[in-house]
Design brief:
Helix 11 (380-391) crosses helix 14 (462-472). The strands form 8 sheets. Strands 4, 5, 6, 7 and 10 form a 5-stranded mixed sheet that branches. The protein has a 3-stranded mixed sheet with strand order 3-9-8, with no helix packed on it. A 3-stranded parallel sheet has the order 12-13-16, covered by helices on one side. The chain contains 14 helices and 23 strands. It is of the alpha/beta class. It has 4 domains: 1-49, no CATH class; 53-116, no CATH class; 127-375, 3-Layer(aba) Sandwich (Rossmann fold), CATH 3.40.50; 379-472, Arc Repressor Mutant, subunit A. Strand 12 (195-199), helix 5 and strand 13 form a beta-alpha-beta unit. Helices cover 36% and strands 20% of the residues.
Length: 477
């Protein structure tokens, strides 16, 4: 037995203490015979022997921490929101209970770290100046219509407001080689909040960026997205990742116990490719930007020193804006959105509110909502539902009635040819079979079927009818 304080061997049992000074004994001689540790020092030693926890950002108590490089060394900016304005001070790490939290090193992250030479007398950042500068940069480096530039402007700016956002949309520049779609990713890689940029990202890479603790730790920029439909795990994660709080399960097959972990999926995402994904759920969360070849004022891949410093400066200012405006203000928008449209656009409108770009951006949002609704109405399910509404009596239709209507020459929305008595092929490439039609009526439209000796009927609840009318429309074109 060994006394930790007076450095003397003491004989006794595990319950004994040094009788002379009531000192604690080191029962397992854990620290060696040169130890004079106090309880506080012992805990510090335990922390040092543990691996530190690496976090790019986090909240603790009343403070917020964001990792940077300060004068060439990894550090945190600690933001105290109990003061007005918030006080920002640098620290190298933070001890929390029995753990030590450290900022990541540059070689362990996929993005270029934020770098500051000093954080003394940091300026207050102006929202209007930030947006003006971003707008100028977008005009210098990409060739798009102004409406599409506004979408990109809001998306870059919103990546520094992830604490404000509950749900979001994705952007997808679509075009042939040389159309400029990759230029958008290159620019966003230099400006957006902690991005990972690659072609054919594995979900292991994505899990590493987004982690299983803090939410909104970065952005995803993926090129050549046209092959994504083959990776169902990634598609599933991306479909979940528009909403804060969603997690995806993953089992680590490299561990003996094959422990299951749950990883965050929420993050802004921009996909570029020759075509949009065919997954309907991912399509509903994505705004496509169809690119055309053009010549920008400057080449993002060939920056001179002045241009590079310009992008670094605005990127650092965006981070400072985030730190100075972390808490979401109470804003009453002058536009009312519901359902999926609210999920996709409302938080972005809140972020752009009060700027000179707000009204123009709101107009772009309204047009995208109209385009989205027209796309939904043009889909096959919508055509079938509108046909059901035309034939419906007392909330009922017969299967024979809807099938014969689809095949009839009187139907404008179902122009095509009958292959056999169970298969009909539309001129626009869609195919309808008796089996797929029955499945749509049951599963998509939630109809309750009843078969008799003379007919099969489907009955629809009034609430379901109202929901489907709102989603698809009920007018026959």
């Amino acid at each position: 037995m060994y006394c930790l304080t007076c450095q003397a061997d003491r004989n006794g049992t595990a319950k004994d203490v040094c009788k002379e000074a009531q000192h604690d004994l080191d029962y397992e001689n854990e620290w060696g015979k040169c130890s004079t540790y106090t309880t506080k020092e012992i805990r510090k030693k335990e922390r040092l022997e543990k691996k530190p926890i690496i976090k790019p950002k986090f909240r603790y108590e009343q403070n917020y921490y964001e990792s940077i490089y300060l004068d060439g060394k990894p550090s945190f900016l600690k933001v105290d929101y109990t003061t007005n304005p918030p006080t920002i001070t640098p620290i190298s790490n933070l001890d929390v209970e029995d753990e030590t939290i450290e900022p990541p090193k540059s070689e362990n992250v996929p993005y270029v770290p934020y770098q500051f030479k000093s954080v003394q007398q940091l300026p207050r950042v102006s929202k209007s100046n930030l947006l003006d500068e971003l707008w100028g940069i977008i005009n210098d480096y990409v060739v798009m219509e102004d409406d599409e530039k506004l979408l990109l402007l809001a998306y870059i700016f919103a990546s520094y407001h992830l604490e404000w956002i509950n749900t979001l949309h994705y952007l997808a520049p679509i075009g042939d080689t040389g159309s400029g779609k990759s230029t958008i990713l290159d620019l966003c890689n230099k400006l957006m909040y902690r991005p990972i940029y690659s072609e054919g990202l594995s979900f292991a890479n994505i899990f590493r960026l987004l982690g299983n603790n803090e939410e909104g730790t970065g952005c995803i920029l993926e090129d050549e997205i046209q092959s994504i439909d083959k990776d169902r795990t990634k598609v599933s994660g991306y479909k979940m990742g528009y909403k804060k709080g969603n997690k995806q399960a993953k089992i680590n097959m490299n561990q003996l116990d094959q422990k299951q972990s749950f990883y965050r999926t929420f993050s802004p995402k921009i996909f570029a490719g020759e075509r949009l994904t065919e997954d309907r759920g991912l399509q509903e969360r994505t705004i496509p930007i169809y690119m055309i070849e053009g010549k920008p004022k400057f080449n993002i891949s060939r920056l001179d020193k002045e241009a590079e410093l310009r992008l670094i400066k605005i990127r650092n200012e965006l981070l400072l804006w985030k730190l100075q405006n972390l808490n979401k203000p109470e804003i009453s928008l002058d536009i009312s959105l519901e359902g999926r449209n609210q999920e996709l656009f409302e938080d972005f409108l809140t972020i752009m509110f009060g700027s000179k770009f707000y009204e123009s951006y709101k107009t772009v949002v309204i047009q995208n909502i109209k385009n989205r609704e027209e796309s939904i109405h043009s889909k096959l399910e919508a055509r079938i539902w509108r046909a059901c509404r035309k034939l419906m009596k007392n909330n009922k239709i017969t299967f024979a009635g809807i099938w014969n209507y689809i095949k009839s020459n009187d139907s404008v929305e179902f122009s095509g040819r009958e292959e056999n008595n169970q298969r009909f092929v539309l001129d626009d490439g869609f195919e309808i079979t008796t089996r797929s039609l029955s499945k749509t009526l049951k599963e998509k439209f939630r109809g309750k079927s009843k078969r008799t000796s003379t007919a099969t009927t489907f009955t629809f609840e009034l609430k379901v009818i109202e929901q489907l009318d709102q989603k698809y429309g009920k007018e026959i074109l």
